[in-house]
Amino acid sequence: MEEVVLAHPYKTRLIADAQIKTDRLDAHALGTLLRGNLVARAHVPGRETRARKNLLRQRLYWARLRTGDLIITMRANEDTGRPEKNDRGSTELT
User: In angstroms, what is the C-alpha Rg of the chain?
Assistant: First the structure.
């Protein structure tokens, strides 16, 4: 079975700094780097890590959305002069 290598684009400078850029020359340069084990590999997180990151990303999205709604509500209350509700549902004069 052949191995798939994900090269780090910023650390593979040989190809980026080349004067003449064609797919054939890039493939040849990558092959040479691979044979010499000189390719800077990009980190690919495992399935568990990706799942955890996706969960946290979703939580952050919902928290930001909720915070944005709260800020909009607070600003609307400031503009209309209505009293805000506290955590217990009663109103307080500000």
Answer: 27
